[in-house]
Amino acid sequence: MNELETEIQRLKEELDRKREEITDLKKLAGRDIDRAFEAPLEEFSDKELDDYLRDGLSAVNTLADARPDLRAITSSRKTLGRPVLFLKRVLLETTFSQLDVFLDRQIGFNKQMVTLIRILRGRLADRMKALEEKAAGLEEDTVLLRSRLDDLGARLK
Amino acid sequence: MKSLTTASGRNLAKAVRDISRRRGVQAAADELARRERALGLRRPTLAVYDHAFQFIGGAQKYGLTLTSALQDLFDVTILTNRDIGQREFREWYGLDLSSCAIKVIPLPVFEERKVVHLDPSFVTRGIENPFHRISRESGCYDVFVNNSMNEMVYPLARESVLICHFPERRPKSYFYADRYTRVVCNSRYTAEWIEKKWKFRPYRLLYPPVDMETGEITAPKKKIILSVARFEPEGFKRQREMIAAFLKLRRGRLDIAGEWKFVLVGGSNPGNAYLDGLHDLADSAPAGSVELKVNISAVELMSLYREASVFWHMCGLKQEDPGETEHFGMTVVEAMQNEVVPIVFDGGGLPEIVDHGVNGFRVRSTAELLTRTLALIRDPAARESFGRAAREKSRIFARPQFEATVRTIFGEILESLRSPKSPDRA
What we know:
The complex is a heterodimer. Chain A has helices at residues 3-21, 25-29, 46-64, 81-156. Chain A is mainly alpha-helical.
């Protein structure tokens, strides 16, 4: 191994070490890797819409648990801290207790709507499927009857 | 000479550290690797990843046949998440991958849940991306090939190829398909949906390799209609509809179809309720008219291909989701390689294989399926000529064609690796 090869080997080990130290993939890639994407609902298939509705329902449930924890409020002021905290809590609790009533009703309504849409979609899909099956069966019967008819016609000629 | 190498060593160290400072560690490692290759100190390295290599499957055969064709160009590592060996690859696909290394990278999230299938769809923004472990590993090679139906692996290698068997997901959390330098797809149908869902054009089309040709067909064909498709628990392959149609055909035209038999072949896991239902349906048919053959050997399958006259494939029927239609249709090509006349659903990737009225037929309903089948049943000469035309068409999907395209694609990648300029992403 010549000196250049030794240097390459040394550099490789140095870079591997650095790579190991970096835990954030974004930093390793040297660029932002995650982005936000819009969901083009009008392009979705029925199955994708079903999945979207299911995810929507679970998002509503998550939202219901996502209210701020008022106990987590802190203050950095040494002497004034306690009364400031007390006032903050009173103010926020009063505001949130008013908001909670409204939010609970809104979340309940959203849940009901998403469930309703899912049920309606399911029923419509079932009806459509039954109709399609009936139509397919009739088409098959027609093919077989026509083939019999053709054979009879050929025999009569 | 010694002082020259010392000087170039110093220059190299300076250049690499400079890149590391400006563009990051990965870019510096890429540049170092490029110089190493340019000096002829090592061969280019390539890793092929699939989170489902531990299962037998068409997509996995595709990825490993590609790997096999690249062994003489690269030092290849096969990346998997579960323990698997050369022996299985040889037994399942007849591939000798002995010059490839195999590296197993377990994904703790899936291991803790003790799941059989590592289903990427379970990963959402709410949890940390478990595939970042593979992303990190990808940076250790010159070329990274992702053969998974999983675009949550971010490619760090200088050259990266995403083999897309179908774009299942739309761009959402952890979507990195457009971060690969090249996206290769398995059919024009897949390419069309990549454009629709991902909004970019794939780099190249590479049809799957199909090698089920069993030699010259000399013995007369039997009155068998064959179907070869996995018994999916969701019934996507439409075996139930095909059995029902066949029974109707038999009942309605016993005089013509009475001597014909419908044989359905496919793989299945134990406890498949859909398959149980098919067994019930087959039991209700007159003895011997409908046969279900589950998980049979390749030898038995080959013999069935040689004997059968007509091939039915209706995956895509009654389906509006593009992902649940056949993305290509390897078993249709297998049948055609053995002069079995295909009657297939007119959707997905199947129109790329079967030219309607030339080497088989494409239909949109079970009624059309019966019309075309009746015509073929009545006309042995037509069966023979369509069978020969089918065999002719199937040649474009044979393994030598696949390997030639693989070498062209990766020849271009090797060329790009020599350039100091980093390639653009897809």
